[in-house]
Amino acid sequence: MRLISSIEAVRRETLLMALERKRVGFVPTMGSLHDGHRSLIERAVKDNHFVIASIFVNPLQFGDGEDLDSYPRSIKKDKQIAEKAGVDILFVPEVKDMYPSEITTKVVVSKLSQLWEGASREGHFDGVSTVVTKLFGIVGPCTAYFGEKDFQQLQIIRQMVVDLNLPVKVVGAPTVREADSLAMSSRNIYLSSEERLAAPILRVALDEGLNLVRLGERDPLVVMALMKQIVESEPLAVLDYVAAVNAHNLQIPKMLHAEIRLLVAALIGKTRLLDNDGLTLTE
Ligand code: AMP
Description:
Layout: E1 2-4, H1 7-19, E2 24-29, H2 35-47, E3 50-55, H3 75-85, E4 89-91, H4 95-98, H5 117-120, H6 124-139, E5 142-147, H7 151-163, E6 168-173, H8 193-198, H9 201-214, H10 220-232, E7 237-246, E8 258-268, E9 271-281
Parallel strand pairs: 1-4, 2-3, 2-5, 3-4, 5-6
Antiparallel strand pairs: 7-8, 8-9
């Protein structure tokens, strides 16, 4: 595995790959790698001739008062994990190279990016879609792997790739969880031991919501009320939102049908956690 920080050097490599007609897999991350990231890399290794993973804590997607400065960074451990998982190039650009001057072009995926996470974190998804467009511009034609853990982000990237005709195939991969079902996240290390015990309440709310749908409930508001009640039963949790939505446009439908997704976000102590799960209704 080679560690490369130069944008031009990565471009040269991917141009060579294209000339040799090699399939390139790309896994963008913010580092502090865990088994969720590892699963994306392993999938990319399985599907492609050559795999690039990037680590870039993107200032553009953090709002004022968010954790940009304290975001966990562990490049030494990340290198080991990436190499073991089969990454060929670990691309770790510097902020000064990604944003040499104030950025004047932004990519905004309207509608989808205003909802849920977008409503709670203003400008967040504009930062995400802009940096992912830049990374796609650097890496070039590839298959890019994103986690369903950040389901809204995944749908936004899918929409962006279609809207802008980007030469990228987007693959979504399932959420990897801890033994007690908490979705793995780089931010989980912020949780105190007491908070860590409370955190799986998000998954409980999703499970109970999905069960209610499986039992025949089709009113999204009833499902959301149950999920809300469950999260609020945990004294350490402060609910941000629950939603039962159409998996494509992420809007709450009148009646649940076809592909649906349940979303939940809550503060556990000072740590904001999110989770989601879905199913396909056939009748
Ligand atoms: P991040 O480093 O948090 O920006 O995440 C980089 C990529 O890893 C994104 O596509 C995330 O959705 C994905 N990811 C993060 N956590 C998980 C998880 N627990 N399971 C699967 N994918 C994940």
